[in-house]
Design brief:
Keywords: Membrane, Transmembrane, Transmembrane helix
Low-confidence stretches: 1-44, 206-216, 383-391
Domain CwlT-like lysozyme: 231-353
Protein name: Lysozyme family protein
Domain M23ase beta-sheet core: 423-533
Radius of gyration: 25 Å
Pfam families: Lysozyme_like, Peptidase_M23
Shape: globular
Distance between the termini: 67 Å
Number of helices: 20
Number of strands: 16
Mean pLDDT: 76
Length: 542
Amino acid sequence: MMLKIRLASFAIKHWKELAGAAGVILAIILTVPFLAFMGFMPGGEEEKVKEYASVASEFGIDWQELVAFDMVRYDNNLEKGNPEEAALYFIELSVEKLKIENLKCEKRNKKGECIKGGGTIEKVVSKKTYTGKEQILSFIKNNGASTKNIAESLRGIGAKSTLRVSMSSHGIDEAMDLANFTKVMKRDVKRILDSGMLMEMYPDLQSVSGGIGLCIGDVAPGGSAKGVTDNVKGYKSLIEKYAKKYGVEQYTGWLMAMMQQESSGMGTDPLQSSEGPYNTKYPKGPNGIQDAEYSIQAGVQEWKASIQKAGGDMMIAVQTYNFGAAFLPWIKTHGNKYTLEKAQEFSKYWCSSHPTQLGCNDGVHGTPQHALMVLKYYNNPGKASCESMGGDFIAGKGDFISPMPKDTYTKGTWHQFRSPAWHAGVDLNVHSWADEGKIGIYSIAAGKVTRAGSSSSYGNVVYIKHKVKGRSFESVYAHLAYTPIVEVGMSVKQGQKIGMVGNTPGVPWSTFPHLHFEVHSPAWTSDKNNAINPELVVKGLF
């Protein structure tokens, strides 16, 4: 089947060049594989593939992996499949049960408003992880939600004040294991993905991916390699080839820097991907891969998975590449930022719980300084490369600033505040669908994050409390493209990036990428009675 796919793909793409061939040979080369290829296409339904891509984007999954997964499960007929049901094999839920405690107000003003202390604090009572279709569906049912619209149900459950639900995704290999795929089924999935047929058939969907291309932290994509050996330079074209194939071409320079640190371009496994999840051909031990091109192909796929799961943070992603997948959930609960000290802490923690693992005989797991060593070989464009989306911070004058950079939203979209009962905020629309996930959202003033997660009505949302000139405010930023890059309890500065502009599929009032922005004083309430006009706040007229 794999040969037929490749022949057909080649024939469809290059039929004009083949037109001079003999008629009989041409019929054999073109017609037979084409018919086989059409039979292997995902039901021939472009809209169904787009539905899968939309669900993949919502759950932070690689859309090609989700499509290939169900192509094999349903014998190439996606019409039988349900993308949300398939996505359950790719995700893991971390659920914290919370206890909300009211804090005593220490001081009130003449109006009776609390100006010191007060508020609430969340305490984690218990924590549990749910993986795979059966566990996740059981969790949804036990919380009284419907399993017909899984994403909507998870948003609704996550909106409960007594639960904190976070979601992460894993790769195709674990998904296939959870779904009990046979060896033949796993082989067919890999062949579909390796052929590149889905990307070639649906090029408009190439940009649908988790945190790829985001400027998170101090290291940005788009830079070039520096100080690398001629061996590494010699692999540049292959790195570009597979980076483009898997939709991470903006990291070509970074991948070259990784190769320099991993091997200086020497040996048959220059990206040291033998022990990674995408090596399915050679032994899993160190330097098991005996084909340099295959090492690059597997390494690029592993990098893509790492950067997606890290939400675009290149330093966390590259240290995960070195440490393994266990580093990512650990660092997310230990500051969510790479530092050498944190990496050393994880290394010691891992060896204390896995003393017999290779390399732990001296108490050190992996290379804690790996991310810093890769960075040494990279021309980091930093925040300058993010100017089109505002960088990690934007500047402004006054007590409050705009939550989006100038010229990133359409004119006239501020004037939508009607009343709390009608529309408690304003919708700042971007210029086109292409801007979704590419334009930053920023805190209008310094403050503390009071909520960061998912809501059934707001989608991905962030709430921030501010104290300005003795008065309390709470700002709300809704319909973000990805899981917020800030966490509850985190202090943020004015102009600090908190997320990316997005859209919430399935919500009737969210039909185009935009920021729904609210300001409340002294705080947000479910009846929206404290809502004030955000335009007046930002302009300093309130």
